[in-house]
Amino acid sequence: MSQQVDGKVESWTERRLVVRSVQHAPAAAAVLCARVAKAMAQIEALNQRGRGKKRFETVSALRPAVVAIVQRYSVENLIWFRLTQHDTPRPVRAYRGQPARVDHDRYATVEVRVDEAAFEATMARLGWRVYGTTQPLASLSLAQAVLAYRSAYQVEHSFGRLKGRPLSLTPRYVQRDDHATGLIRLLSIALRVLTLLEFVGRRQLAAEGAKLAGLYAGNPRRETIRPTAERLLAAFRDLTLTIMDGPQQTDRHVTALSPLQQRILGILGFPLALYTRLCTVSAEPP
Predict the structure, then answer these.
(1) How many domains are there within the chain?
(2) Are 118 and 191 members of one domain?
(3) I need a surface site. Which of 39, 121, 153, 166 has the fewest CB within 10 A?
(4) Taking the C-alpha atoms of 112, 117, 123 and 129 in order, what is their torsion angle to the nearest 10 degrees?
């Protein structure tokens, strides 16, 4: 491989590893079949006539509805459809001085089927990935390269946190640009905290060669070596701080830490005093 950078040609040797996941392929195939089936069912439903059903009189009116369904399920190259314009003459008898006439019942229908060749070709490509590395085979085998890729940090995971729970950047109910900028900067700091919390916990568990149990509701024995920051924080959701104001002093009481909570503080490198000192009297602020 070669690339010109700042007027200088940089060259390197790169291996391309073509890998197929036999576990991912069936799951992806099931999702693909479900998408195709839903798209075809909704397209065929456009032909139904009856109360509450929209009737398309022309092909030009029906085509956008079909295309919208195809695009919604991303099956543009997987199904084939044909639109047909119908014009059925309907005789009307003379009535109360009105002469007999012939009306025309105009409507459009759609015929849809799976493009078998395109569908089979798409199914055959499911589960395949191409990896690139500059490491030679002697220092990085195929299996090691795949495992390294799967264990690599994925920036998309952080973006998902920023847009959804627990940071919930969207929907953003602000109108001013400076408010939007400030909100994004604030949530970016929170995102760094979550990422660092997760990294430190996983690194410590890996150094100890240990697993952490008790993070999954309904399955307390389930263990993991890669806990998420959200699950680590959720383990502390049942804590309560009680403040009692007296004539002479203010007392505080906090829920005692469980063994799991103490263990989490330990792998994160936090001393227990970080929590227990909240019980001091108000004259000695924590």
Answers:
(1) 3
(2) no
(3) 153
(4) -130
Instruction: Specify whether 119 is located in the same domain as 146.
Output: no
**Residue where a domain terminates, one of 193, 210, 227:** 210
* Measured distance CA(220)–CA(215) in Å, rounded: 7
Domain extent, residue 243, equals: 235-279
For residue 13, the one-letter residue type is T
Phi-psi region of 201 (alpha: psi -120 to 50; beta: other; left: phi over 0): alpha
Q: What is the DSSP letter of 114?
A: E
Judgement on whether residues 177 and 201 belong to the same structural domain of the protein: yes
Per-residue pLDDT of the chain (286 residues; tens, 9 = 90+): 999 988 899 999 999 999 998 888 999 999 999 999 999 999 999 998 877 788 888 999 999 999 999 999 999 999 999 999 988 887 878 787 788 777 778 889 999 999 999 999 999 999 998 989 999 999 999 999 988 888 776 777 787 888 777 788 877 778 889 998 998 899 999 999 999 999 999 999 999 999 999 999 888 889 999 999 999 999 998 888 888 888 887 777 788 889 999 999 999 999 988 887 776 544 444 4
* Cut 0.70: pTM above it: no
Distance set, CA 20 to CA 29, 74, 130, 149, 153 (Å)? 13, 23, 9, 14, 21
Q: Within this chain, do residues 145 and 205 fall inside the same structural domain, yes or no?
A: yes
